[in-house]
Design a protein that fits this description.
With 580 residues, the protein is mostly helical. The chain folds into two domains: 442 residues, Up-down Bundle (Growth Hormone, Chain: A); 52 residues, no CATH class. Helix content is 65%, strand content 4%. The chain is built from 23 helices and five strands. The chain has a five-stranded antiparallel β-sheet. A hairpin with a 2-residue loop joins strand 3 and strand 4. Helix 3 runs antiparallel to helix 4. The longest helix is centred in the C-terminal third of the chain and has 33 residues.
């Protein structure tokens, strides 16, 4: 049965319409591209017990963000393996396996959420689902490059556009499913009407004759819930965020769609060319740094060009992926307290949706543009413009804290959207860049190995943004705690400032709750939590700019064969029988 999935059984006739292949590629990429909407799951996963607010037993953001990172790591690792395997078995086989991994990963992840076993979520969504990401990602790329040799950039942009647009479709679906499966926890009453005590940093109250852990939700927190709720005290562990049901539903749906798409794949015969197309002359190809020879997968690893392009992809992705992983949280933290009437939960969800829109459009736009201005020049634009935009974000965040006007929100929004077009454009342009440098014969395998840069970026980006953010939060909490009245602190949290570390660990003390008792005129530090991260990302783009500038054509010694070598092989084949 599986042998029928191999590429020798899916070779198309010469009269096959090549435009039937892109829809299957886009469908698979739309499914796996929902990974970019991961930040939608951050709020419910860090409140699985508390539901309306985080309780002491809930997972922290730093733990949940790494699920996304693990998925990206295994995307790169599986793509490195699948790239060479793809050349052997073809895209249909790889696409079917991707469907089992991606859909099955969601289902296993749902079991982990239901049983509050974080390792199962990592195994399902992160490891198995990540393998599905890598397999599904590489399956259409080399296939479309072979179907569209006349428009390599457009072809790869068309396929990878779906990956960027996956979150655009997934975001509203995920939000809707979370609302469908949501169940509110037991409500005890307003904060002042319930007798609360603090034990080990946790807030406790009496419920059904027993002392149980509770969470105190403010007006802004209940406003973000999918159904109307009152601010006050809720019993931890009595509600449902809807995350488990959402995971299970998505897993089944993605599996069905990806299986149908995988069976739609076809490949062209060896030597096929589009009707009426003539390959560019040698002089024209050299001017655009486009080779007409081929480099073997293993030989590509021995060239400096492979590692320079690895750095180019890695740092371009690192600069964007950390922001994507916490996009909804970042928007809410920077602007939620200063412009609460505008930046609410719905606005933040729309922001994630628009990231997907610009990510998707950027993939097609920049990849198609690279057909005209060249791949190298396209990346030069990414890095020069990206450096300026990343440096503009801390400026906008700083201004909003002292002058809360919509202008700074618009500036931030515009800067990040342009950044995400170039982030997506980098992914869509790199396969064509590789085909130009190394040839088309083994571009699928070489592309798969280069995607280990994505794995590395999947660790570096979230690591940088979470570590730098945590350091900023710790510093800000200590600074605010030193300014508040100790008596007000005791009354607010049921413990003294001396127990600050314990209260912070139990999520009882936060920047938002400290600002409620801070002296008048105290500036909320939340908007500046990501400043150091943006400076770090700009520095990475400087390094990537230098690496891209150093890319040169491949030395002749790395090519598999020349016309002269072909003649020798042919002549040797003719002489072999007489010598025998």
């Amino acid at each position: 049965m599986f042998d029928r999935l191999k590429k020798q059984h899916i070779v198309a006739d010469d009269d096959f319409n090549r435009w039937k292949v892109p829809p299957a590629s886009i469908a698979i990429h739309l499914c796996i591209g929902s990974v970019y909407a991961w930040s939608i799951f951050n709020p419910p996963l860090i409140k699985e017990f508390g539901v309306v607010a985080a309780s002491s037993g809930d997972w922290g953001l730093q733990s949940v963000v790494w699920i996304f990172s693990v998925a990206i790591v295994f995307l790169g690792l599986s793509a490195a393996f699948a790239g060479k395997w793809l050349e052997e078995v073809g895209p249909r086989m790889v696409g079917v396996v991707a469907a089992f991994c991606w859909g099955g990963g969601f289902i296993i992840g749902s079991l982990g959420i239901m049983n509050h076993q974080l390792w199962l979520v990592y195994l399902g969504y992160g490891v198995i689902g990540g393998c599905g990401l890598g397999l599904g990602y590489v399956s259409p790329v080399s296939t479309l490059i072979r179907w569209f040799p006349d428009r390599r950039g457009m072809a790869t942009g068309m396929a990878i556009m779906g990956f960027g647009g996956g979150a655009m479709i997934a975001t509203p679906i995920k939000e809707w499913l979370l609302g469908v499966f949501f169940k509110a926890p037991e409500y005890l009453g307003a904060e002042g009407a319930v007798s609360l005590v603090t034990e080990g940093g946790r807030r406790m109250a009496e419920f059904n004759g027993q002392m149980v852990e509770v969470v105190v939700a403010g007006a802004s927190q209940v406003a973000s819930m999918p159904i109307p709720l009152e601010a006050g005290v809720y019993v931890a562990g009595t509600g449902n965020t809807g995350a488990a049901g959402t995971f299970l539903t998505l897993g089944i749906a993605y599996f069905i769609i990806m299986i149908i798409a995988a069976f739609s794949y076809r490949v062209p015969r060896e030597g096929w060319k589009p009707a009426g197309w003539t390959p560019p002359t040698a002089d024209a190809a050299n001017r655009r740094m486009i080779t007409q020879n081929n480099v073997h997968i293993d030989q590509a690893l021995k060239t400096p060009q492979f590692y320079l392009l690895w750095i180019v992809l890695c740092f371009n992705v690192t600069a964007g992926i950390g922001v994507i992983g916490v996009a909804k949280t970042m928007m809410t933290e920077i602007f939620g307290s200063t412009l609460p009437l505008i930046v609410n939960s719905g606005f933040a969800a729309t922001y994630v949706f628009m990231i997907s829109v610009f990510n998707m459009c950027g993939r097609f736009f920049w990849a198609s543009t690279s057909d005209y201005i060249g791949r190298k020049n396209t990346y030069h634009v990414f890095f020069v413009l990206g450096i300026v935009l990343y440096l503009s974000i801390p400026y906008a965040a700083g201004q909003i804290s002292v002058n809360p006007v919509v202008t700074w929100l618009v500036m931030f929004y515009a800067a990040t959207m342009i950044i995400f077009t170039m982030y997506g454009g980098g992914f869509a342009t790199i396969p064509a860049y590789l085909a130009d440098i190394f040839g088309t014969k083994y571009v699928g395998g070489i592309h798969g190995r280069l995607l280990t840069a994505w794995s590395t970026a999947g660790v570096l980006g979230p690591l940088a943004i979470t570590k730098l953010r945590d350091a900023s939060i710790t510093s800000s909490i200590r600074d605010l705690a030193s300014k508040v009245d100790p008596a007000a602190f005791q009354e607010k949290f049921g413990a003294g400032i001396a127990q600050l570390d314990q209260l912070v660990a139990a999520k009882t003390v936060t920047i938002a709750r400290l600002m409620e008792i801070a002296p008048a005129g105290t500036i909320d530090p939340t908007s500046s939590l990501y400043n150091t991260t943006m400076y770090a990302m700009a520095a990475l783009l400087v390094i990537a700019l230098v690496a891209n500038a150093l890319v040169r054509p491949i030395a002749d010694k790395h090519y598999m064969e020349t016309a002269k070598d072909d003649a020798k092989v042919t002549q040797a084949g003719r002489e072999a029988p007489s010598e025998a």
